[in-house]
Amino acid sequence: MNAGLVILAVIALATLGYFVGRARALAKAGGDIRGLHSLPNYYGQTVFLFTAVPALLVCVGWLLLQPLYVEHRVSDMITPADIAEGSSQSLVMADIRRIATGLDTAVARGALTGADLSSLSADATDVRALLAGVGVALASEVKGSVLAAAKEYRAATATLKMAMSVVVILIALAGFVLSLRRLRPDFRARNVSETAIKALLILASSVAILTTVGIIFSLVFETANFFGLHSAADFFFGLTWNPQFRGGSDLGILPLLWGTLYVSFVALLFAVPIGLLVAIYLSEYASNRVRTIVKPAVEILAGIPTIVYGLFALITVGPLLRDYFAQPLGLGTSSSSVLTAGLVMGVMLIPFVSSLSDDVINAVPQSMRDGSYGLGATQSETVKQVILPAALPGIVGAILLAASRAIGETMIVVMGAGAAAKLSLNPLEAMTTITVKIVSQLTGDTEFASPETLVAFALGLSLFVVTLGLNVLALYIVRKYREQYE
Amino acid sequence: MYDAPNLGAKVEQKTNKIEANGVQVYYGDTHAIKDVSVAIESNTVTAFIGPSGCGKSTFLRCLNRMNDTIDICRIEGDIRLDGEDIYDKRVDPVQLRAKVGMVFQKPNPFPKSIYDNIAYGPRIHGLAKSKADLDEIVEKSLRRGAIWNEVKDRLHEPGTGLSGGQQQRLCIARAIATEPEVLLMDEPCSALDPIATAQVEELIDELRAQYSVVIVTHSMQQAARVSQKTAFFHLGHLVEYDNTSTIFTNPRDERTESYITGRIG
Amino acid sequence: MTDATSSGGATPRHSSSLLTQDARTLKRNAAESRFRAYGLSAVVIAMLALVFLLGSILHNGSSAFRQTFITLDVYLDPAKLDKKGTGNAEEIRKVTTFGYAPLIAASFEKLFEEEGIGVEGISAKKAGDLISKEGAADLRRFVHEDTTRVGETVSFSFLASGRIDGFFKGRVTMESAERDSNVSPAQLMLAEQLKEAGHLKTSWNWGFLTMADASENRPEAAGLGVAILGSFYMMIVVLVLSLPIGVAASIYLEEFAPKNWITDIIEVNISNLAAVPSIVFGILGLAIFINFAGLPQSAPIVGGLVLTLMTLPTIIIATRASLKAVPPSIRDAALGVGASKMQAVFHHVLPLAAPGILTGTIIGLAQALGETAPLLLIGMVAFVREFPAAPPEGFFDPASALPVQVYNWTQRADPAFVERASGAIIVLLVFLLIMNAIAIVLRRRFERRW
Prior knowledge:
The complex is a heterotrimer. Chain B is 37% helix and 25% strand.
C-alpha cells in the first residue's frame, strides 16, 4: 500500500469521523443543540483532528526516517572491497538504490517473478542487462554483495512500508474511537478544537524556520564534505577556477567572486542613479497623468521573470554590444560579457531601486519640504539638500538590498555573462559568477561525491552568507531610519 | 495706495507692505477664500484669527505662494508686495519666498546640524561670500532668534535633538537668516508649552523692529498680546480687519464679537 | 531675550524688484531645469528599456506561432507498409519510421510529374528533406490510428523543415543557404514553387502550444505542451500547499502570537527568506527533497515544493498586510457578542481580508511561474518528450516547465530555437499578464477603505 493511499484513507476516516461525531453529539443531547456545550460542528472537528493529525504526523515522520534506517542497515553489508577506486560509500549506496528500483520495475513488468528474484544472484544472471531491459542503466557490472544489499534494501523498504501502513491506520482508528468515546454534551469541544487548530497554526508558522534550518543544514553538511575532499585554503584564496573530471581541480572562489562583484557593480552603476532619479521625478515632479502611466510600467519591469531578461541579454543586448562596441574597439569578440549581464541586470534592478527609494522619499515628512520651500529653495535644491540627506539611510538600505539581489541573480548571468572564470578588468570580456558555477556544477551528469560537484554547495553557502549579511544590514538600516520619523 | 514704500522705511511711519485685493482661493471645487482684501503694514505684527477651517492659514500661504506646491489649488485676485503683483508670470516664487519667509505650525528643523539648518538659506541664496561671512550670519540669526546662548556650544549637533520650543526658535532663526522683509508665521506656538510660547511671543515682538510679521493664531490672547493689527476670518470671508485694540474692545461685526467672547469657534 | 542684540538695520540684499530675476536666480533656475531633465531622462531610459525588452521578445518570438506546412497527396503503399498483404494491424505497426520516408519521396515524384514542378538537381528523395524529420513519424502515427487506410491516397499536411520554415519567415536567405549544409538554394527554389502551386502554406501553429519538445535537429516540431502541463502541475502544488500554510502562519503571527523571542525569530526568518537568492532554494530542493527524501528528479512535485517555500514569504507578507488592514473594531464587535478569538478571526476577520490574501497569492504564483534557477538544479532542465500522467501520479513523472524550456532552447545550436524560446517567453508573459490582471481586478473590485 503506498503512502498516498494511506494518507487518503486516513483523511477519509477523519471525514467520516466528522459527520459521525457531529451526529453523535447531537444525539446525546437529545437533538437539541442548546444542551451542548459547543456547536455540533466543533464535536465533529475534534473527531476529525484526533483521527487525522496524529496519524499523519506519524506517517510523515516515518517516511522521513525510513530511508535513514534502511540505509544504515544496508550500509553494514557493503564491505570496503565493494567500493571501487575513485568511488565512495555514497556512490555505492546510490547504485544500490537504483538496482532496488530496477528490480521493482522488473517485477512490476513481469520480467521477473518473486521466485526468480529470491534466487537471483550476480554470478548466474547478467543483472546489468536485465535492468537495462527495464530502463535502468548502470555504470558497471553488479557485484554479488551489492546485489544482496540491493535485495535487502528492497525487502526492508517493502516491510517497513507495510508496517507503516498498518501503524498509521491503527493510530487513525484509535484516534477515531477514543475521540468519539469522549463526546458528551458537556465536553468542551470548541476549546479543544480551537487549541488543536492553534497548534496547527503554530506548526504552519514554523515552516519558515524549518526552511531556514533546511537551507543551512543542506549547505553546511555538504560544504563540510567538500572541505573534507578539497583544501579550504585553495577554495577561499585560489586564483584559478579549473575543474577537472579526473580530480586535481583548482577550485578557487576568487575569480568567481570577482566576476560576481564586477557584474553587480556594473548593474548598480546603471540602476542606482536611474532608479533614484525615476523615484525622485515621480514623487516630486511628475504630474498625476505621467505618474499613472509610468508607475505601472515600472512595476511591469519588476514583474518580468529573470529568464526574460536572460533571453534579452542573450539574443539582443549581447550581440548589439559585441557588434557596435566590443569588436570595433577591439576589446572582445564575445557576445556574453560583464557589460551585457550588468546592463540587463541594471534594467531589472531599476524598479527595485526606484520603488524602495520611493518609499523612503515619501517617508520624509512634507513639513521638511515646506520648510525648505518656505526659505525660498528651488525643488532641486530641496531634493538634493534636504530630502536626499534625510532619506540617505533608507536609500543606502535600498542599494544594499539591490546589491544582494544582484549578487544572487542567476538566469541573467547564466545567459549573459559567460562561463569562463577570469580575473580581468575588461568589461567586454566574458566572465563568470558564483551562481553560474553553481548551476553548471550541479546540472549535467556529475558524480555526486566528487569535489567538483560538492564545491557548488560551498559556493552556495558563501552566496547565502554574503546575501544574508547584506539583507540583515539593509533591514537594520531601513528599520532605524523608519524609527526616526515615527 | 501707491505711496512710495521706500520713503516710509526711514521715518516711523507705517506703509503698506503687502496689499491683497479680491483674493479667491479654490481647492478643487471648494471655495476656500472668498474675496479677501487686506493691507499688511510694515513693521507691524498682524494677527489672523478665526475658527478652524476659516481659511486663515490658506490665505497666509498665498502670501508667499506656498500654495503653488499643492496641485489642486487655484488662486484668483491680486496680491502685491511693495506694489508688485506676486502672481505675475514673471515672478519666480523662489525669489518671492526669499523675501517673504515662513515659519510653520510644527517645528520642522532639517535633519542636519544646527549650523547647517541656519546656513541653508544663506547658502542657497548666496548671501555669504566667505566662510567667515556665513559664520557671522549664523551667529547673528541665532542671536536674533533668541536661541544663541542655548546652542552656541553645540552648533554641529543635529537640530532635531533640541526641545520643541528650541526647535521652533531655531526655525524662526532659520527664516531670519535669509533676511526676508516679511515673516509669515502659521500658528508658531501651537505645538509649544506655555514657557516656550512666551519666549517665542517675546521674540515676535522684537522682530517687529525690522520685519513685517503676519501670524496666524488660534489663541485670541496671543493675538491680543503680540499684534497691532488683527484680521478676523470666518468661513473664508475676511469679516473684520482693524487695530487689535479696536477688534478686542469694540468690534463692529457681531460675528467678531461672538468669536471673541467665545460664543462661536 | 537679552541676546537678541540690536544688530542694526540689516539691509536686505535681494534685488529690489520681484519682476526681474537676478543673475543668481537665473543660474539656480537653470540648475533646476537641468535636474528636472535628468529625472525625465531617467524615466525615459527606464521606459525605453521596457519597450526595447518587450519589443525584442515580440519581434523574435511572434513568428513561433506561425509554421510552414507542406501538403502532399500520399499514397499509403501496401507494398511498403504491409509487405505480407494481410492487412493485419499488428504487422503494419511493425514498420519503422524509416519505412515511411519512401512514401514521401514517392509523392514528391508524382507531384513533379503531374504539375511540372521541379528544380534541377533536386531528386524526389532530396525534396523529402524539405519536410521535417518529424514528418515520417507523424505519418506513421496517422496510419497507426487507422490501419485500414493503407492502400488509400490521403492528403497529408507535413511540417516543413526548420530551414524551409525559416526561409518563409526571413531567417534563411538564398545567400545563407549557400553556406549551409542543411539546405541548398535549389531546395529553397523548390519551396517557392511549391508555395506558388499552393502546396506550401504558412499558417497558425497550434502545435507550438500542444506538442512536446523535440530533439536538437527538428526545431519545427518542438512545442510547449509538456512545459505548460509541467508548469501547471507545479502551480497546483504551490497553490495547494502555500495558500493554507501561508494563511495559517499569517493568522498565527498577526492574531495570536505573543510578543516574545520565538515570534521575533519567525518574523526575522520570513523577511530574510524573502530575500534569499532563488538558486539557494534550488540547492535546498536538491539536497533535501531529492537526495534526502528520495523524491524523483525533474518531477513537478519537487519543483512545486521548492517554489512553495519561495512563495510562502510573499503570501505571508501579503496576508499579514490585509489582516492588519481589518480594523480592530471588527474583532472587538465579534468578541463583544461572545465569540471566541478563533471565531472572531475565522468568521469576521478572515473573510474581510480574503480579497487581499487572494491578490497576494496570485502575485506569488505569478512569481513562482516565472522562476527558473532553482528548477535547473532539481533536474527540470532534462529533455522530456513524454507527457506526465494525470495527477496525482503525474506529479511524480518527469516534466519540464515553461521558463526552463526557454533556457533549454537557448542552449541549442540551431538558430530556429531562438524563435521558439522567444515564442515560449511570449506564452509565459501572457500567462503572467492574465494572472496579474486578475489580481488587479480583484483588488479594484474588493478593495475596501475603512
